[in-house]
């Protein structure tokens, strides 16, 4: 089962969690700090990183460790 790490805003803070889990891995006052923590967690777990905007829409997605090796470009 593939792991997805998400960065989201709730209750006046930015949070990092594994998608589908209730408890965050970490909490942050600034989005940049949460993104850095989320990126580190995604790299550590070879997971996809989903970064959300304040309104919950997806701002960015990055995969870590699952990219095909023979992709031109």
Describe the structure in your own words.
The protein has 73 residues and is of the alpha+beta class. The chain has one domain (4-63). The chain is built from one helix and five strands; from the N terminus they run βββαββ. The protein has one helix at residues 31-44, and strands at 4-10, 13-18, 26-28, 48-52, 58-63. The chain is globular and about 40 Å long. This is DUF2188 domain-containing protein.
Question: How large, in whole angstroms, is the Cα Rg?
Answer: 13 Å
SS-derived structural category: alpha+beta
Number of strand segments: 5
What level of helicity do the residues show? 10-25%
Average residue-wise pLDDT: 92
Oligomer: single chain
InterPro entries: DUF2188 (IPR018691)
Biased composition (Basic and acidic residues): 17-34
Pfam family, one: DUF2188
Protein name: DUF2188 domain-containing protein
């Amino acid at each position: 089962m593939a792991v997805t790490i998400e960065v989201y805003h709730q209750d006046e803070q930015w949070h990092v969690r594994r998608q589908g889990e209730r408890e965050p891995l970490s909490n942050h006052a600034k989005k940049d700090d949460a993104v850095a923590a989320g990126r580190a967690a995604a790299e550590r777990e070879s997971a996809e990183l989903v970064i959300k905007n304040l309104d919950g829409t997806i701002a960015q997605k990055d995969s870590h460790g699952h990219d095909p090796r023979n992709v031109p470009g």
